[in-house]
Amino acid sequence: MRILILGGDGYLGWPLAMHFSGQGDDVAIVDNLIRRQVHIERGTDSLTPISPLLDRIVAWREVTGREIAAHVFDVSDYARLLALIEEFVPDTIVHLGEIPSAPYSMIDRDHAWKTQRNNVESTLNVIWAMHEVAPEAHLVKLGTMGEYGTPNIDIEEGYLEIEHNGRTDRLPFPKSPGSFYHLSKVHDSHNIQFACRIWGLRATDLNQGVVYGIHTDDTERDERLLTRFDYDELFGTALNRFCVEAVIGHPLTVYGKGHQTRGFLNIRDTLQCIELATRNPGPTGEMRVFNQFTQVFSVMDLASEVCAAASHLGYNTRIEHLENPRVELEEHYYNPTHTGLLELGLKPRMLSEELIETVLHTVERFKDRIRARGIDPATSWR
Amino acid sequence: MRILILGGDGYLGWPLAMHFSGQGDDVAIVDNLIRRQVHIERGTDSLTPISPLLDRIVAWREVTGREIAAHVFDVSDYARLLALIEEFVPDTIVHLGEIPSAPYSMIDRDHAWKTQRNNVESTLNVIWAMHEVAPEAHLVKLGTMGEYGTPNIDIEEGYLEIEHNGRTDRLPFPKSPGSFYHLSKVHDSHNIQFACRIWGLRATDLNQGVVYGIHTDDTERDERLLTRFDYDELFGTALNRFCVEAVIGHPLTVYGKGHQTRGFLNIRDTLQCIELATRNPGPTGEMRVFNQFTQVFSVMDLASEVCAAASHLGYNTRIEHLENPRVELEEHYYNPTHTGLLELGLKPRMLSEELIETVLHTVERFKDRIRARGIDPATSWR
Q1: Domain A2-374 class in CATH
Q2: Which residues are CB-contacts of A56 (< 8 A; sequence separation ≥ 6)?
Q3: Whether B160 and A165 lie within 8 Å, measured CB to CB
Q4: What do you get for the CA distance between the two ends of chain A, in Å?
Q5: What residues 133-162 of chain A have any CB closer than 8 A to a CB of chain B?
Q6: What is the pTM of this model?
Q7: Which residues pair with A70 in a beta bridge?
Q8: Which pLDDT belongs to residue B113?
């Protein structure tokens, strides 16, 4: 297949590009390198040393003999996006090209708007370009489980059968997201759903949980193929951050009570899920929605798992409850459905002590690169 | 009260500014004059000759001895908005400063993004500015009934009690809007609701129906105080357009079957509704939602009413069904609730033949200004 990956230089985008390319798919990447730039702005960095995008491409060619085409521009440049899609003729456009940080979007007005502008404009450009020059393509768009918030009812996959005053309809699941970043994804979902309905486009919206893990089959083939691994307050996800904290003797920082419960998945399963969605497009005229995670944990569950694994490696780790910088429920009902990807054949890798030990060992290897300053939360929702 | 009106040069904004000012409220206007500019771009214009904003201000002073402060800038300029709010210290911010046209937003990618950018950024700026310098102010934001679309269930006012698998929650009403413009208002609603929830702001979201009518008590006091009256394909609303068509002998242009059903209200009732919301703010920490219309009609109902009234004035009018440029259901269930504003004391003016005759007489008066070229739809949803 011809696969265009927007955001192909990112934590998930780069391993995904290799994953498809390694199977013989024709892969092109677009990225504006914004994550690298934000790290420069903040004085933080990936734990893993990551090669420049063009070096990654060269390394991949040397290791596999395969070509990944890389285009460095901002998807807000509609003319360039349109020209690329017209020339490349993708079967699938995987859109990961968004700013993915809740805290970043809450810093101030400028960061809130930068996030919503980047994300909403990029997705709007993608759907207009599809409408204009690639109406047969399949859009696979990364959303987030955070779009739903924590309602007091079961979370379904994108839509809900509602009975009200004796009448029924299947409507978009009502969403109550928890940051301007999460809101940007809700806006995207509404725009995409509309485009499918009126233009007959075909899209899959993947409401992804929190990803953990550091390696995929391809990142392990050559040091230059490593993907990024963020542990700072803006881009670090919980389990990854806990592993870094354990190794440097920093308490595991749990925000508030830690009973906040979310869906999680291994980075390898992210690749599997996106591949399943890509190889099995849904019907035209519809935005199909999958909830993309494999297990539900509370933040405390994860911290305890990391404590246990770290202890077996000889680390003496403790949990510290920080005042929660976010405005969120710390005790809530949480029961999201996630059957769609399992029905397509997803074989989940459950979280294991072995996985956590692998992450801990990788953190040990790059321990001298850790900048502890960036870990504790400086951004408050209030 | 100190009332800041964003979009105070518009069809509703200008009469509203006079309405409050006439009652002794301290009124300031912000407007970027975008509607006037788009008309220049398109070679169309308001039926009524409207004075420049600064002449309106002078005329109002001459007629009433009262001052309305006018600020011409774009609300996307956050620094200026912030400074103005900090200086003016509004009790209420009425936000009408959005691009209000569904067809305009469907012209192409640039118009879609211009609409979403203008609307979402302006509202985001307002809520951030309130958070920073005016947390006690009340935001009265103009939304649209078009946010809901036409679900097969009763439409409630903003929220819906949902029972699902034996559990219940009150969640935002699920929305399926019909254009990138309507989507921008859905995005706004989500952003405002979040801001109220996390920052304890106070807001009222007015999901307004289609407004008709040309005069308010104040616009009739002096020719220079007239409000605009649009009848072109982009900004004209159905009943207003039909009246212009009747007077120039153009068939009344109904899109498709005309069984599309919507909520409608008189421009005088718009002022009444916004005043009721302003004088009776809801609790802090909540986005209160009212559905702002007084009657439900199908497009054919309205066309027939205009035919009848025009016929009594001696016009021989016929209805022409155009191929529908929009993608929308032409036969659908429609039963929206609208009790909130009635409970606050709204006294609706129902649509009457007399009202239509008044509009027809005003159209006759300005007949030589009509540019028929701009009436028929040139913008398709497909």
Answers
A1: alpha beta
A2: A9, A14, A50, A224, A225
A3: no
A4: 46
A5: 151-154, 160, 162
A6: 0.98
A7: A29
A8: 98
